[in-house]
Amino acid sequence: MDMYLKSIEVNGFKSFAHKMIFKFEHGITGIVGPNGSGKSNVADAVRWVLGEQRAKQLRGSKMEDVIFAGTELRKPMGSAYVAITLDNSDHSLPIQFEEVTVARRVYRSGESEYLINGSACRRKDIVELFFDTGIGKEGYSIIGQGQIEQILSGKPEDRRELFDEAAGIVKYKKNKLETQRSLEIERENLVRVTDILTELERQVSPLQKQSERAREYLLLRDQLKDEDVKLFLFENRNLEQELNELDQKIEIAQRDMKQTEHALAKAKEKYGKQEELLDSLKQEIETIAAEISEMKITKQQKEGQIQVLKEQINTERMRESIYLESKDKLFKDLNEKKQQLKRFEVETEEIRKEYEAVMDQKIQKESEVALYQKQIQDFEKEHEEIEIRVNAVREGRMRVAGAIERSQTVKEQLNVQIVGLEQQMEELEQQIKEQQNEKTLFNNKIQAIKGKKEQLEIERHNAKRIEETLSVERRQIQTEIDKKREKYHRIRSNYETVRNMAERYDGYGFGIKKIMEQQAVESGIIGVVADIIKVEAKYETAIETALGGSIQNIVTDTQKTAKKMIEYLKKNRYGRVTFLPLDAIKGKSFAREEILSEPGVVGSANMLVQYDETYKELFSSLLGKILVVEDMDAGIRIADKYRHNVRIVTLEGDSLNRGGSMSGGAFKNKSNLLGRSREVEELKGRLDKWTQTIAKDEKKYDENEKKLKEYQQNMVNLEQDIQVISLELNTQQMSRTAIENRQEELTKRKEQLVLQKERLKRELYTATEDADRLQDEQMDLESANEQDEERIKVIDEKLEYLRKCAEKHAMEVSKVHMRLSQESQKLEFQEDNQERIRSEIERLSEEFNENQKDVGDVNENVKTLQQQIEELKDSLNLMEQKIITDQKRHQKIQEEVKTKEILYKDILKEREEMIERVSGYDKEIYRLESQKDGKKQKKKELLDYMWENYEVTYHQAKQRLELNETESLLRIKETINRLKKQIKDLGPVNINAIEDYKEVSERYEFMQKQHEDIVTAEAHLTGLMEELEDAMRRQFNAKFKDIKRVFQEVFVELFGGGEARLELTDDDVLESGIRIIAQPPGKKLQNMMQLSGGEKALTAISLLFAIQNLKPSPFCLLDEIEAALDDSNVTRFAKYLHKLTKDTQFIVITHRRGTMMAADVLYGITMQEKGISTQVSVNLIENDLDE
Description:
flat, 19 helices, 10% strand
């Protein structure tokens, strides 16, 4: 499936205040709506999301204008967001996703962001993604009336972008531009490197002479170092011997102390054992005493148990006597219950016979009651039939009586109505007079309201004037804010540029950039020297001159890291870089500190920079022996005074080197690497300042807006008051009109009442005649009803007699029922009594048997209790004997404890004597250790002296020289004095000359290599540009030929004949403009400017369709490009559009019905709410379109 546009999402963009999603399919989709509804904002949204940066192209004055600005009812939004989603299943776009969503968001602060599938990206990434697809702000996928106008009326040169995109050479042009930029950078680098080489050539010769003198100095210094090493070894050996003697004394004292501590440990052990034995004996005494106490308590408890058991025996004896007494009573009760059961059985049989007799009587009485009820039913049926006839007659009588009553009522009502009409006529006369009075009152009110309305309109006019003044003030504040924002964005752009230069290490060598790229994976890389120091602006030039090439040196944590990075450079042939390992660099400082107090001295270079304490040694090494002075005169004076043995740098960057050489002037292209961090911070500070200034102006703007809203609200309130007054005025006027209408109605009503009174008099005469006729009919119905009422009286008497008889028999049946119920209850009671007596007999039998068993158990219990008493007495005898034995043992152990306590005191005295001896030995060892520490301190001072002066350790000294026993300490000291004199005679020596010479030589070689690399790169880029231009010319010529051919074909089809062609205005096909010449049917061949508006538009459309034929874009958005065509040409336009849908998806914004009819899908856009575009059904706006 070919790539196509699946959807457009807009939120907060221009008039789209709400989130809105347009979904598209293949074919033609139409977007329609009335003028001003926001249709073209869809095209602007797509153009904007594809990277359009010119606000004018989006029909605005600045980019923030694309954000929804609010309406009278809605607040402005803070951001605008647009996203387009394309199907990329054919992977036409160079990205792995099947679906690609490109989005852009902008905030009112001016910040914006681009996204591809939700991930942040650059505008450049989006532009490059759509290269040569026809999609893009420069492409031909979005064509509006503005682009049509540009094709028609623009200069031939302005049409290049469209043809370049169609020819597919935009990517080549971009590559050529980037190559050209790279070439310019390389040429700038070539100038810079040439300047550096020239400067290095001037430094090499003086440094070579100073290097030779420094080598002689170093030779003498090495000899002096050897003698100092010998002296160090001699003194160190003597200290070692003294330390050994002290160690022996300490060892003897420690041995004696150890023996005493051993004896003390034995005494402590003996003391501990004796203490444990005493504790054990005391514990045993306590245990025995506790056991004796416990046994006495147990004895008392057992004696108590014996008394309890005796009481239990007495209890059992009493139980035995109770059981024997209850046995006789149970036997007697059992016999009585059995006799009672026999009596109950006889009584139950008698009650059952009586119950059966009552049941027979109940059946007889119920039969008699049933016979009476049958007779009653027959009479009631006859009574009911007669009652129906009587009711019918009664209803007739009632009907006639009702009619008579109604007739009478009608007569009364008619009389009342006649009287009412007469009263109404009197009231109408009164109301007419009242209405006239009200009319006069309303006329007065209307005059007062008109005066109040005029006063409110004057107030509204004044408020309007103040509102206009505030609006002008607000526009002025907004203009100021816009200007300041423009300055803010310029500073921000500079800030971003400088920050990016710092992050990309622009101005540094190629190798340095490559090493810094490894910083993320190699933690040992700290950074270049310029990154880890801060310098005040006034010292930047001096410090950068002082550092020289070292400013681009890379600082590492160890030599190991530096070695690893050098191997990395060699492996990848990235050139040479100087590293400064922190574990190898040692600090330097001026030997004569009084130099810092000289007039004109600013200070030591390392004291004028700020850095982390970790890098103290590093910057002491790089800058510790470099003096910064105010000017060249001060520098020359100090250099002469100190015999040119100090490197001096002026604040302007001039340099006086050791040995007398001087450097000055300035480089052609100054890199100012040190100033970058400061410049970033300064720009950041300026950004913050402008942010605050803009915030203040915005606050002022908000205050103005608040006042404006207050006056606007005041205007609204005045408008509302005027409306209320107007409404009241209208109400009063309407009320006055109503009164006039009411007067007219009352007059008409009076006339109607006169007519109605005559009609009622006629109706009263008719009602009197109807009442007489109904009176005669009532008398006939009364005579017919007398016979039926006599028969009803006879039937009622018979029914009364039968009901009394039936009621009497029913009462007898009820009595029989009650008696039957009583006999049934008696029978149930007797049966319950029998069951109760049986249960009691059974219970008494069980109790009797249980009593017999308990008597046997009592005898058994007595025997058991007597046996337990005997056992307890035996246990008491044994316990008494044990108590006597334990008491004797307790007395014996107490006597033993007294003896052991005497021995314990002797052992304690011996232990204290041992502790005093150990303390004495400890003091002696401390004194010897103090002497030893003093010797070690002296030895350390010797080691520190060797390290500070020669960076030599004891082992290095031993390896360097073998100590000759024949040499004397005096001779060594004489040799040292002689060597120091020779060094002094050499005069000022530039110690760093050797290193400087080596460094400058290496840098000179490195710069020569860079010079060669840059020359090679320049040649390569020049060749690449020529290749790109050749490829573009070939491709453009081929495609331009095809476009001319297809343009002619499409022109003929759309115009129905004629001729059209394209011409280049220049021989250079890459820079030439394109001229369009057209000849519609029946006209001469002429320039575009001479065609009519419709012909121009159709010619431009022909060109666009020709390009779409040759190089179809995945989708094409057309914004009312056929607006200038007549209906017949619109039909041709729509027909040809369908031909192109085979390869291209079209979204057409239009208000032409012919184009709408050709669309497969239609979206409607309208403004149901002022200022806010809404997507609606197309039917909702058809009427607007017809208009």
